[in-house]
Amino acid sequence: MGGIAVGNYDVENDKNGYAFLCDITTKEYTEFKLPDSITNTLYGIWYNGEDSYTLAGGYSSHKLGKLSQAFLVDYNGKTKKISNLKTFSYKNETVLSIITHFEGITDSKDNGYNMPADWITLNGEGNGASFVSVSRNSDGSFGEANWIDIEFPGSSVTSANTVYKNNVLGIYVVKEDTDTKEISSFVAKVVTDK
User: What's the CA gap between 45 and 1, in Å, rounded?
Assistant: First the structure.
């Protein structure tokens, strides 16, 4: 997006995740690490014009008190500085989930963004997918998230893996019996008020 790609990697025998940005033209890699973070992942980048990008992913830190939170942050491709960092938990409630993660990003009509999200409940027994919309505040910061859950009918697990406008792509799992699982992909158009 705008000449920059994002990605992630792991190092053998290291439980931390690492994220990077890659300038497609110069082949220059830039490590991405949020302040006070332990792990970082980048799964989405949106080009806003000139040197401005918005990044989406997830991270963990000792301060969070949970495994992972989703985030949005602005990135300047020239200075390599970040601004407007905002973290997000499932349904905007910190007590509902131990993991919340954005899996991509696209723009929306209201000068904001849409993201696919995956989450795991606090007790670790429930998980799911959501379509998330976030608008910009007048000062340029990110507003509160609007969450719409996505569940493929008859599935035991639904995951949202990428998004374009109001279209979410992902996978779902159907358990045929105790030993057999069928994993399939889906695309869903999400109807919103925006």
Answer: 6
pTM for the predicted model, two decimal places = 0.91
Contact indicator for 115, 134 with CB cutoff of 8 Å: yes
The answer to whether 95 and 122 are in contact (CB under 8 A) is yes
What pLDDT is attached to residue 14?
77
CA distance 144 to 130: 15
Q: Which long-range contacts (CB under 8 A, 24 or more apart) does 3-10 make?
A: 3/47, 3/77, 4/45, 4/47, 4/53, 4/77, 5/45, 6/32, 6/42, 6/43, 6/44, 6/45, 6/55, 6/57, 7/42, 8/40, 8/41, 8/42, 8/43
DSSP bridge pairs for 66: none
Length of the chain: 194
Cα 23 from Cα 4, distance rounded (Å): 5
Distance between CA atoms of residues 7 and 31, nearest Å = 10
48 and 12 Cβ atoms separated by less than 8 Å:
no
Would you put residue 124 in left (φ > 0), alpha (ψ -120 to 50) or beta? left
**How high is the pLDDT of residue 12?**
82
Question: Mean pLDDT, 10 residues at a time, over the chain (194 residues)?
Answer: 94 84 95 92 96 95 76 96 94 82 91 93 82 95 95 89 93 81 90 72
